Amino acid sequence: MKRFLLFSALVFLTSCAMTETPAPKTERQLLLDSVTMDVGPAPEFRGAGMHLAEGSFALEGHASYRKDLDASPAKGVKRQNHQKKMAGVPYNKEYRLIYDLGNSPVEGAASVMYKGKGVLAKFTAGLDGLPFLGVALGVNTEHFEVGGFVFDHFWDRTFRFKGTMYEQMTYYAQGGSQPVSCLWNEDNCRVDTVTLKSDDYDAEYYLMTHNLGAGLFASYFIENVVLEYSGSFYYPKVTEDPEDEDVKFTRDFPLVTTQRFSVGYNATQNVTARFGATHVAGNFDGTYWALFADVIVRLVF
Predict the structure, then answer these.
(1) pLDDT value at residue 90
(2) Torsion over CA of 160, 164, 168 and 169, rounded to 10 degrees?
(3) What's the pLDDT band for 183 if we cut at 50, 70, 90?
(4) Is 12 helix (H, G, I), strand (E, B) or coil?
(5) At 188, phi and psi to the nearest 5?
(6) How far apart are CA 196 and CA 212, in angstroms?
(7) Residue 17, SS3?
(8) CB distance 229 to 259 below 8 Å
(9) How does DSSP assign the chain, residue by residue?
(10) Which residue has the higher pLDDT, 296 or 18?
(11) What average pLDDT does the segment 107-136 reach?
């Protein structure tokens, strides 16, 4: 008798489950046409800009003003959309990752440096839109200096996403036409109708980015005149996701290179005025030029 009652209860519960219609399922997928992101020059790292005596310790600060000359428009590089197959939605569609080249008009930094036996070590922290840090090591002689540096530049970068948002609604068959397995697996449910709609998508997000890079510098001293060059590269590294979880994009960003050419005049051991140009290019189409002028103040001990 007990077995019969248990069997009857099981049949009753199963029949109830089979007559319950699952709620409609919504799936969204964004297919990007373009992702445009702000890109600027790397911060400047340099040597002492003058000959320092062995055992010297120096504190340095500088402020720069920069003027954009030209930023040729970029068509962007091709990247693959992150997507799953959805009926009626294009598959394997590519989008363009576009660098919007430019920079902030002012930049400032403070440095601490020490010269040992021919070797110069310099630590720099500054602000170029957002903070940056770097360490330089080089050789400082009476007529020239040369060395290298590594850096990290924090950047709250603007990203603009354009594309098409697809929304698919799946409606399931009513009542007892559903199999029991529909209870635990939606893929086994019988579908009644599927609708698909699409809308244009255009949104901006500010995402924290690290510009991690390295470079070289060289200076030549002709009495009080200083000729300087620095070249560096970095890869943007995005450390957060857009608020909209449907926005998925590649983190494979093209290399960015920065070159600076300048002429300076050491009015005294403590004050230097400079004028120069900045060029940004890299593994992408489009280039950028800017002029800059700055004043350097230092204390040598």
Answers:
(1) 84
(2) 80
(3) low
(4) helix
(5) -90, -5
(6) 42
(7) helix
(8) yes
(9) -HHHHHHHHHHHHHHHHHHPPPPPEEEEEEEEEEEEEEE-PPPP----SS---TT-EEEEEEEEEEEEEEE-----EEEE------TTS--S-EEEEEEEE---SEEEEEEEEEE-SSEEEEEEEEEESEEEEEEEEEEE-SSEEEEEEEEEEEEEEEEEEEEEEEEEEEEEPPGGGS-GGGGT-GGGSPEEEEEEEEEEEEEEEEEEEEEEEEEEEEEEEETTEEEEEEEEEEEEEE-S--SSTT------PPPEEEEEEEEEEESSSSEEEEEEEEEEEESSS--EEEEEEEEEEEEE-
(10) 296
(11) 95
Residue labelled with tokens 């990247």: 79
Query: Please, which pLDDT band fits residue 73 given cuts at 50, 70 and 90?
Result: low
Q: Are 137 and 148 in contact (CB under 8 A)?
A: yes
- 209: tokens are 């980015």
Give the per-residue pLDDT at 71: 66
> In terms of Cα–Cα distance, which of 167, 194, 166, 185 is closest to 22?
185
In this structure, the number of other CB atoms found within 10 A of the CB of residue 55 comes to: 10
Q: Which amino acid is at 13?
A: L
Give the list of residues 6+ apart from residue 50 with CB closer than 8 angstroms, or none.
Answer: 221, 226, 266, 269, 272
Handedness of CA 272, 63, 239, 74 (dihedral sign): negative
Question: Which helix (H) or strand (E) is 13 found in, with range?
Answer: helix 2-19
Cα–Cα separations (whole angstroms), residue 156 to 129, 199, 206, 224, 236:
9, 28, 6, 39, 11
- Per-residue pLDDT, averaged over 54-65, amounts to 95
Which residue has 């050419």 as its token pair?
261
Cβ-proximal residues to 243 (8 Å cutoff; 6+ apart), any chain: 205
Structure token pair of residue 241 = 């996701």
Poorest-pLDDT segment among 23-32, 71-80, 140-149, 157-166: 71-80
